[in-house]
Amino acid sequence: MSGAMACYTINDAFLKVLSDDVPFFQLLFLRGVATTVLMFVIAKALGMFDLRMTRRDWFFAALRTLGEVGAAYCFISALFNMPIANVSAILQALPLTVTLAGAVFLREQVGWRRWLAILVGFVGVLLIVRPGVDGFNIYGIYALGAVGFVTLRDIATRGLAPGVSSMTVAWMASAGVMVFGGLGAVGTQWAPMSAWHWGLLLGSAIFIQGGYLMAVMVMRTGEIAFVTPFRYTSLLWALILGLLIFNDWPDALTMLGASIVVATGLFTLWRESRLKQAE
Question: Can you tell me the distance from the alpha carbon of 276 to that of 253, in angstroms, rounded to the nearest whole number?
Answer without folding.
Answer: 35
